[in-house]
């Protein structure tokens, strides 16, 4: 090939790269403008706190302050900063759950992609910036507050006929118990997804679903949203007992440790980055950080008895319904 043609080809390739780069810049500017317009139209109407015994009415921009002050100091609540596609391990203890009362399982501060400040929800126009934060909580000014809610209720909550539901609950509430879990946050300009995975005490079995975060100003009573929505995870009483898998000696006076490890992964776009679950070591480390001593004790006891590690786990099962919704 003549030298002139080689030079012309190189110039053409450089021009194409420059043109592609300029087009990307224009597309990003258009997207940013669309997001800026979307955030100006986002709803600022306050709503009741989704936690059962909390009757406070909270504005979206104040939910972070409310969550940190009211629902992050309880030892049974996991409080953590979470990042895009980075797993967070929490513990669900079913003891003490009253029928029909929402409990806060975890208080999370979503910060977008780790070490990328421009992806913070308040900066990327995903949500409104937070207000009324004080002292060291100012570092969460642009984070998105997310609360994981759990509630003990009945299968009959899925009935649209609420009169029939009440009658059946009165007749057979003990044999129809379920636990419902879902994530809530202030309204966002784009859908926010999460993967919720439940493990047993030995990490041998798991169950996983992909859902979207619900608006905290919507109905938070499972009886109101179970018949019409699917952004939640349901565990039957029998499944909870199976995941707990408590085996205690009759002579032992020490009460058994209780709790079910759960893994939460939050992300904005489910199709761009593959979901990466925690490794065995990461799950153990995370369990120790949240103070779930029962996992460590049980794994050690099992290893002593069998001579093998008990942290081997099966692949997670994601519902077909969720996959069809994402591909639609």
Determine the N-to-C terminus distance. Answer: 49 Å
Please count the beta strands (DSSP E, at least 2 residues each).
Answer: 12
Per DSSP, the total helix count is 8
CATH fold name: Apoptosis, Tumor Necrosis Factor Receptor Associated Protein 2, Chain A
CATH architectural type: Sandwich
CATH C-level category: Mainly Beta
Structural class from helices and strands? alpha+beta
How many domains is the backbone divided into? 1
- In quaternary terms, these chains amount to single chain
Strand and helix order: HEEHEEEEHEEEEHEHEHHH
Average pLDDT taken over every residue:
81
CA radius of gyration: 24 Å
The CATH homologous superfamily: Apoptosis, Tumor Necrosis Factor Receptor Associated Protein 2, Chain A
Strand content: 15-25%
Q: Which segments are poorly predicted (pLDDT under 50) over 5 or more consecutive residues? A: 248-256, 291-328
Mind describing the biggest β-sheet?
6 strands, mixed
Shape summary? elongated
Describe this structure as you would to a colleague.
The protein is an alpha+beta fold and 328 residues long. It has one domain (48-327): Apoptosis, Tumor Necrosis Factor Receptor Associated Protein 2, Chain A (Sandwich). The chain contains eight helices and twelve strands. The chain has helices at residues 3-40, 63-70, 162-172, 222-225, 237-244, 280-289, 293-306, 320-327; strands at residues 47-48, 57-58, 78-82, 88-92, 103-110, 144-154, 177-185, 193-199, 206-212, 214-215, 233-236, 260-267. The strands form three sheets. Strands 3, 5, 6, 7, 10 and 11 form a six-stranded mixed β-sheet that branches. A four-stranded antiparallel β-sheet has the order 4-12-8-9. It is elongated. Residues 304-328 are annotated as: Disordered. Residues 316-328 have a biased composition (Polar residues). Residues 49-245 form the DUF4729 domain. InterPro entries: DUF4729.
């Amino acid at each position: 090939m003549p030298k002139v043609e080689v030079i012309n080809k190189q110039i053409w390739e450089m021009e194409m790269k420059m043109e592609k780069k300029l087009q990307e810049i224009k597309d990003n500017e258009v997207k940013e403008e669309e997001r800026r317009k979307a955030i100006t139209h986002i709803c600022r109407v306050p709503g009741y706190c989704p936690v059962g015994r909390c009757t406070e009415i909270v504005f979206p921009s104040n939910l972070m302050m409310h969550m940190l002050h009211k629902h992050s100091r309880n030892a049974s609540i996991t409080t953590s900063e979470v990042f895009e596609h980075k797993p967070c391990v929490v513990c669900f203890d079913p003891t003490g759950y009253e029928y029909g009362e929402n409990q806060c399982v975890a208080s999370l501060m979503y910060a977008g992609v780790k070490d990328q400040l421009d992806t913070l929800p308040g900066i990327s126009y995903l949500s409104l910036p937070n207000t009324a934060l004080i002292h060291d909580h100012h570092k969460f000014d642009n984070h998105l507050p997310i609360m994981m809610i759990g509630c003990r209720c009945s299968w009959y909550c899925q009935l649209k006929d609420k009169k029939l539901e009440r009658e059946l609950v009165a007749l057979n509430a003990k044999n129809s118990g379920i636990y419902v879990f879902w994530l809530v946050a202030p309204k966002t300009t784009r859908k926010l997804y999460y993967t919720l995975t439940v493990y047993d005490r030995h990490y041998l079995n798991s169950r996983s679903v992909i859902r979207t975060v619900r608006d905290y100003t919507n109905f938070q009573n499972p009886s109101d949203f179970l018949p019409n929505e699917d952004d939640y995870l349901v565990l039957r009483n029998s499944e909870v007992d199976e995941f707990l898998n408590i085996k205690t000696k009759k002579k032992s006076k020490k009460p058994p440790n209780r709790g079910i490890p759960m893994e939460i992964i939050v992300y904005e776009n489910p199709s761009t980055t593959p979901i990466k679950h925690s490794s065995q070591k990461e799950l153990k480390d995370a369990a120790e950080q949240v103070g779930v001593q029962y996992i460590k004790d049980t794994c050690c006891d099992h290893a002593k008895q069998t001579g093998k590690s008990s942290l081997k786990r099966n692949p997670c099962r994601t519902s077909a319904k969720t996959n069809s919704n994402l591909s639609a």
